[in-house]
Amino acid sequence: MKDIKGHFLNEALFSEITGINYITYDRLRADAYTTGYIRMEKKNSEFFQIPYGKTDKNYYILGGYAYGNLKYPISRNELLHNISSDEIYADVITEEGEQFPAVAIRSYGKGTVFYVNLPLGYLKAYSDDFILRTFLRTFLFKVVKIPHLQNTRDGKGGLVINWHIDSSIDWKSIPFMLEKEYLRKGIDYSFHITAGDFRDKPGDSLGFDACGKGRSFTETLLNYGIIGSHGGWAHNWFPGNVQNGNFGKKEIYEYIKKNNECLESITGYKMIEYAAPNGVHPQPVTTEALEELGFLAYYYTGDTGSAPNRTFLDGKMVSEKVFAFPILTFEKFASLLEMKQAGKTEDEVKRWFIETLDYIVKNRTVRLIYSHPYDIPLYPDAFKSFLDYAEQLRATDNIEIKSMSYFAEFLNRFLKTKFTFKREGRKLIAVLKNPEGLDGITVAIPKKNHKKPTSADISIQEDEDYYYISIKGNLNEKNIYVDAL
């Protein structure tokens, strides 16, 4: 960084308030920047809303699905005399073992300063949404505690259980799920089906054959959630052709459409949810095809561990209309089969399931987990315990367990909400407008300085920091008045 005369600065402009000098080029030149791994102790990772399983046993934050630890670009910064160790929440460790502060929060004057030694915007722009999202949520909502809208219906957390139905093996696994009560009324699963009659190559008869031998199983699943499309007709053949360059956007569109048409002839409704077989979802062409076909949401292996979002690639939003639902992983593993291959025990997997539910409830956020029906026998007790606990939380109105499209439809409406917060005398007023209705839209009001409001057309939840005020009824406009303490 240079001054107006073109001279390199000896110290960063905001060093005084951050307590960290993050411009060291004058001294280090090319060594002023490097790469490293983020490490955050358990207490701090919980504070920063890092899901259980997103850090390894040494407290390093894991980056991507299947990749594990990722190196991030960072500054070789230096601590100044006016910052204490208590104000540093995470470090970056380089491959050479050097340690630099990664995250700091400190008071300055009447305000609070937040410093992160990572290019957060760049990461978001290239399919790594999680760190930017969780760090900003923590600072704005847990540290500063600003009034805000919750991006979940009625301010509650939500879970998507996404089953991938790949091939004829599921003719046995679906009856098993029914017999052992892994399919339960009241939980709306997202079932994504590869509908064709072959799997690896035409004529192998290994496909699920949704419009033939697999039709009765598809009809059974209709009673337990929403059917979506899992790729283009053949589970391994389709992504293989995409990867080797035989299929471009035209073929991707055509075979997903073919898959849709079979499933729609059974369900009687349009396919609006999608999952890429083997995770092969080249951006942006696949999502462009999905948007043209009218999809609302898709399972995504980018932005790992994050909430549903409109993902970016190469600095551009991929789609304004179709939401990416990133998978939540246990370390670098997503499906039960992957966990088994990694040697995870039943107790370890059970703990991950339970911690995931608690995380969703506590942080009032939405996450997606996925596996295959034929994976369940690998961890039968862990998955049963997970469903039992999920039903308990749902029965006490602490969580919604719904399909991918349910949450996507809400987010589409949520984004149309125009809102302002203003003060008049000793009142805080939230002004909300939405042409498609405000039902379920939720305002979070800090408890520290405000009284609990009352009104006939709202419901209120609360935790230690906020009142969560949810609007009831299909109003298009609503003012919420909150008195100061």
From TrEMBL:
Judging by the UniProt lineage, the source's domain of life is Bacteria
Q: Name one GO biological process term.
A: carbohydrate metabolic process
In terms of InterPro entries, this protein maps to: Glyco_hydro/deAcase_b/a-brl
Q: What is this protein called?
A: NodB homology domain-containing protein
Organism of provenance: Candidatus Schekmanbacteria bacterium RBG_16_38_10
